[in-house]
Specification:
The protein is α+β, with helices and mostly antiparallel strands. The protein has six helices and 13 strands.
Length: 258
């Protein structure tokens, strides 16, 4: 049976909790023993005091050992390095205890990453009917909720009716097909958490503009004030550019150039 995939952050939380618990028990033993030694020093004398004191001293040492052991354990837990694994859905970097071979939840997007026979399960691309954003999903998934507009997608029904990634090159937001030879591509919204990656891609398209300037420009985009990325380019080139931008969280407007 395959070993479960363990995220480094989960393992560290468990180890820290155990170490703190051990330190607490050791500290309690040490304090109680020292307190009893002090009390007996005031009330006992002779051999009784020596015997009881020796026993309590040993117990206090045990408590101290618990505390030191827990501190050493905390140091080792903090120094433990994980094995990086990038989420196929959100591109977030997960740190794991070992190479993953079984399902686990991404610590960034919280979606479950599936494995089959110890290797990453195949994915497929679906397009939300509500906001036209593309998503990567596990091929065995039956339903999915769009993380942009909360539209619930019945993936089994979409597969049966062949409604996955659209066969037409692109559409207006209202759904009217664009069939002209040339198009313009504009950004009207974006995922702020991926602005750096988006700016680097835009830097290749908008010559002479720095990534910092593009990040500033992105902050002002809206439906009424779009950022034109490309104008009057062939429809195939526009589709390829649009797909790259959507993968980085951009919300687009594609328009036919007459």
């Amino acid at each position: 049976m395959a070993e479960p995939t363990v995220r480094l952050v989960d393992w560290q939380e468990e180890q820290v909790a155990d170490a703190v618990s051990m330190a607490g028990r050791g500290g309690a033993i040490l304090i109680v023993c020292l307190l009893l030694i002090y009390i007996m020093h005031l009330s006992l004398t002779g051999s009784s005091m020596l015997f009881a004191g020796a026993a309590l001293s040993i117990a206090a040492v045990v408590g101290g050992v618990f505390m030191v052991t827990s501190l050493v354990r905390l140091g080792k837990v903090k120094a433990r390095k994980g094995i990086p694994f990038r989420c196929p859905y959100c591109d977030g970097l997960n740190q794991l205890l070992a190479r993953p071979t079984t399902n686990f939840d991404c610590e960034h997007c919280r979606r479950q990453i599936h494995f089959e026979n110890g290797v990453l399960a195949p994915l497929k691309t679906v397009t939300c009917a509500g906001c036209h954003v593309e998503h990567k999903v596990w091929v065995g998934a039956e339903k999915m909720v769009c993380d942009r507009c909360n539209h619930v997608m019945d993936l089994k029904q979409m597969e049966a009716t062949n409604e996955f990634a659209p066969k037409v090159p692109s559409t207006f937001p209202g759904g009217m097909l664009l069939g002209g030879p040339n198009q313009s591509v504009s950004i009207v919204g974006y995922d702020a958490s991926r602005s750096d990656q988006l700016a680097l891609l835009l830097q290749r398209e908008i010559r002479g503009t720095s990534a910092a300037e593009l990040r500033t420009m992105l902050q002002t985009v809206s439906e009424s004030a779009p950022l034109v990325v490309a104008y009057d380019i062939p429809i195939g080139e526009a589709d390829n550019l649009a797909e790259s931008l959507r993968q980085l969280g951009a919300k687009l407007r594609l328009e036919e150039v007459h």
